[in-house]
Amino acid sequence: MNSVQIGANLGLLAERWWAPVVRGAAAVLFGILALVAPSMGLLALVISWGAYAIIDGVFNLFLAARGGRTGGRWGWFLFEGIISIGAGVLTFVYPGMTALVLLTVIAAWAVLTGIVEIAAAIELRRVMTGEWVLALSGVLSIAFGVLLFANPRSGALVVVWFIGAYAIVFGVLLISLGVKLRRWHRGGARPFPTGGAPPPA
User: Fold this and answer.
1) CA-CA distance, 27 to 111, in Å (whole number)?
2) Residue 101: is it exposed, middle or buried by C-beta count within 10 angstroms (0-12/13-18/19+)?
3) Contact, 82 vs 43, CB < 8 A?
4) Cα angle: 160, vertex 163, 168; to 5 degrees
5) CA 17 from centroid of its chain's CA atoms
6) Could you read off the pLDDT of 39-97 as tens digits, one per residue?
7) Which residues, at least 6 apart from 25, have a Cβ–Cβ distance to it below 8 Å?
8) I need a surface site. Which of 36, 41, 111, 182 has the fewest CB within 10 A?
């Protein structure tokens, strides 16, 4: 993808800067719920996380659909949306899954979405600064997923704290990304001086 195509896609994303803000707010709310009420039980945790994953996936599919109409490459949004919705639906279809299975699902989701976010950040860095926020959220997701894979039998309370803390930090990073996109859009949608070509008018 050349810089002009990326710039055009970035312009579309900037117009919908509220999407990562809403996704981030949902993650923060879920994280706070997990930390404030760590003893709410596995079933409540499954339902809460499943709802968040579906909401996150729907927003990604929305962005993928809007991007597709402009001819841009938004496959990474589509991929992340499908992963999130699939993981969320799985938790609702099998709400009685064991803690070990739930952690495996969450860990796999975190690693896959992290890879997608890092790939997206690499493309965005050609036309704007601040892409490190998206890259950092991707690295955080992968690290969190690996941590869960490495400690699948940690105590229930420890797991809830892991998930809650991750969700809050991840959500804050998404909100920060949305704020940066909003500023970029309000500034006339001109790419930051990183050497990339400006998006077409």
Assistant:
1) 16
2) middle
3) no
4) 125
5) 13
6) 666 667 777 888 888 988 888 888 778 766 655 556 777 888 898 898 888 888 876 66
7) 171, 175
8) 36
| Entry pTM | 0.66
Tokens for 157, please give them. 């309370």
**Is residue 157 within 8 Å of 142, Cβ to Cβ?**
no
Q: Which residues contact 145 (CB under 8 A, 6 or more apart)?
A: 106, 107, 108, 109, 110, 111, 114
d(CA 73, CA 80): 14
What are residue 128's phi and psi, to 5 degrees?
-155, 155
- Angle (nearest 5°) at CA 49 between 31 and 131: 65
* Whether 6 contacts 196, CB under 8 Å: yes
Domain boundaries, the chain: 18-186
CATH fold label, 18-186: 1.25.40
pLDDT digits (tens, 9 = 90+) for 3-20: 444 444 556 666 677 878
**2 phi-psi bin (left φ>0, alpha ψ -120 to 50, beta other):** beta
